[in-house]
Design a protein that fits this description.
It comes from Agrococcus sediminis. This protein has 609 residues and is of the alpha+beta class. The chain contains 14 helices and 23 strands. Among the domains are: 89 residues, no CATH class; 137 residues, no CATH class. It is 26% helix and 20% strand. 44% of the residues are buried.
């Protein structure tokens, strides 16, 4: 897990440790952002929140006014790196060793390495064996706390007898008589207590007197909160142990700013304070209508600004950022001059021969030869999506308001679809009813505010984006995991997809992606993507599936056909339905008529007609 001089970050390491613990700069926002566990060189660490980073004067500011305004912070900072231009020369991020309970690979004894005794070097047992981290940790179900499992207390089902030495008597062993967790045991050499790991769960921890510590591993005991939430035991590599929330923005020309201006006007309106205090829905709506009329905004926008819910505020920030970007792409298509970090070319969608039937469904393509993306870590949760979030910078509400961020440079392809054609398709028989199943499941799920609303337009565009990413991976030279999507499914006729890639190198990428968007290539690429996804190896099961996947938020979508790397998808591989794109026995997809025409063209060509 290393990178070049410009992109690496170091975990805590003394100068004489001789071990190159490094992660890439971009990884300090995700996947190893604040609160995440990182396994590196056989050791396990936890990334700190921004308040544990070096002083702001040693950090490199990442400028993106639009993103800062939407997130209501004054600054965005990147972690200190090894680059020569870094302000924090010699500075590092201090990662906490977690879990602190380790076991010896040679003698199997458990030992706890406390922070005060950790010099950063590779921990060794007195028998010269290497100490490696235990694989299980305990997490809080409600407040996103996490802690070590108190192994001595769990083994003894309560207080440790005076005759036992937790630092020397307990061994982590494997027996030959069981399977899975039942074959793993803790044994105490002092009192001969034995306990198998299939008994390891939150209820038994609570029965042994283990409670939530009310803090994160890097926090001192004085920062602990009183927490009565139940504990759950998880493997330290579980994805639910760290659910990071980040927001990104493309650096675009100042063609907008409308959303921020309207929001500021809403907050300055004389009726706004009364709206925030009002609890009756009827009066809230009335006040919101008055404010909307005063400032020239919508009732929905006024209510969104007044809502104190952090999840809803983040969702609103995403919507506004995407709306601004869509307008910037439309301005680029109209010929507005590009800026240094947003260099664009307009390209007509020109299907010819077999792909000609697609022409009426696309309006144009904007090739972005150079772009800059800024991504900021906002907060994280543990175990559950509805758990209380932990800010990426603790205490930022009363102190300096900033967030960790990274910037990347790259290229991308923006595709503008025919909004009128999509609107007509969404009103066709069965389409709205099919997507309504997912929409209802989303409203009842913990993802209600995290992802865009499941509308026919969004599900269609999202599915098409996944198809194009998979097809571009075949032809562009980029892996599917290195490509990202942005879906523009706003109100009215807004309908677009942006597929892009970035790197932390200021020089950006080499043009292999935008080359696939050029006139002579792109229509054929879309046709191949649609044809490839018309049939799935799991059909008819996949094609005929009702609501499935996490909390029933997918329809006809599986790992064989539609799912891609979660780092590429803005909705965690949810809100997908292949049928909305290419159709099934119940509904026609948007592209079903065009695909029928392409098949007829192919048959006629093969027969010489």
């Amino acid at each position: 897990m290393t990178g070049d001089r410009k992109t690496r970050k170091r975990a805590t390491r003394p100068a004489d440790a001789g071990r190159d613990r490094a992660i890439r700069l971009a990884e300090t926002v995700g996947p190893y952002g604040p609160g995440a566990i990182i396994d590196i060189l056989g050791e396990s660490f936890m990334a700190p929140t921004g308040d544990e980073w070096p002083s702001e004067r040693f950090l490199n500011e990442v400028e993106c006014k639009r993103l800062s305004e939407r997130l209501q912070v004054t600054k965005l900072y990147a972690a200190p790196s090894q680059g020569e231009s870094s302000r924090g020369v010699g500075m590092r991020l201090t990662f906490s060793r977690f879990p602190s309970w380790l076991f010896c690979q040679k003698c199997r004894r458990l030992q706890r390495l406390r922070a005060a005794d950790d010099d950063g070097s590779m921990p060794l047992c007195s028998c010269s064996g290497r100490l490696v981290p235990m694989r299980f940790v305990a997490g809080c179900t409600d407040h996103s706390h996490v802690q070590d499992v108190d192994w001595p207390r769990w083994l003894h089902a309560g207080p440790v007898p005076d005759s036992c030495d937790p630092q020397h008597d307990i061994q982590f062993v494997s027996n030959d008589s069981g399977f899975g967790l039942a074959s793993l045991e803790l044994r105490c050499g002092g009192c001969q207590a034995v306990r198998a790991f299939d008994e390891l769960d939150g209820n038994r921890l609570r029965g042994a007197g283990v409670r939530c510590g009310g803090k994160q591993p890097w926090q001192r005991a004085g920062a602990a909160a009183q927490c009565e939430a139940a504990l759950v035991v998880q493997q330290r590599g579980a994805t639910s142990l760290h659910i990071g929330e980040s927001i990104s923005a493309i650096d675009i020309p100042e063609v907008v700013g409308r959303a921020v201006a309207v929001e500021d006007a809403i907050k300055r309106d004389a009726l706004f304070a009364g709206l925030q205090q009002q609890e009756e829905d009827a009066f809230r709506t009335l006040l919101a209508e008055r404010i909307a009329a005063n400032v020239g905004g919508s009732v929905e926008q006024v209510l969104r600004v007044a809502d104190d819910s952090g999840a809803l505020q983040l969702a609103a920030a995403r919507r506004d950022l995407l709306r601004d970007e869509f307008e910037a792409f439309e301005a680029a298509a109209a010929g507005e001059a590009p800026i240094e970090n947003f260099v664009t070319r307009i390209m007509p969608f020109a299907g010819a021969g077999p792909s000609a039937p697609l022409n009426g469904l696309f309006e144009h393509v904007v090739l972005v030869d150079r772009l800059r993306e800024v991504r900021a870590a906002v907060e994280f949760r543990r175990y559950r999506m509805d758990a209380k979030p932990v800010p990426a910078v603790l205490g930022r509400a009363t102190e300096s308001r900033w967030l960790p961020a990274v910037e990347g440079w790259g290229e991308g392809i923006f595709v503008r679809l025919n909004g009128e054609a999509i609107e007509a398709w969404s009103r066709a028989d069965g389409v709205e009813g099919r997507v309504l199943q997912v929409k209802q499941n989303q409203a009842a799920s913990s993802f209600a505010a995290r992802f865009p609303e499941a509308t026919p337009k969004y599900v269609l565009l999202h599915g098409l984006a996944h198809m194009l990413i998979q097809e571009l991976a075949f032809s562009s030279g980029f892996t599917a995991a290195s490509l990202r999507e942005r879906i523009y499914a706003g109100e009215g006729g807004d309908a677009g997809i942006f597929i892009y890639t970035t790197t932390s190198d200021f020089e950006g990428t080499l043009g292999g992606l935008v080359r696939q968007g050029e006139r002579e290539r792109f229509a054929a690429l879309v046709a191949r993507a649609l044809e490839r996804h018309e049939w799935c190896a799991n059909d008819p099961v996949c094609r005929e599936s009702g609501p499935q996947s996490l909390q029933g938020l997918n329809l006809a979508a599986c790992h064989t056909c539609m799912l891609i790397s979660e780092t590429s998808c803005e909705a965690s591989n949810l809100l997908l339905d292949r049928a909305c794109v290419v159709g099934n026995d119940q509904i026609d997809g948007l592209f079903s008529p065009a695909m029928d025409e392409m098949r007829r063209h192919a048959i006629m060509g093969a027969s010489g007609g």
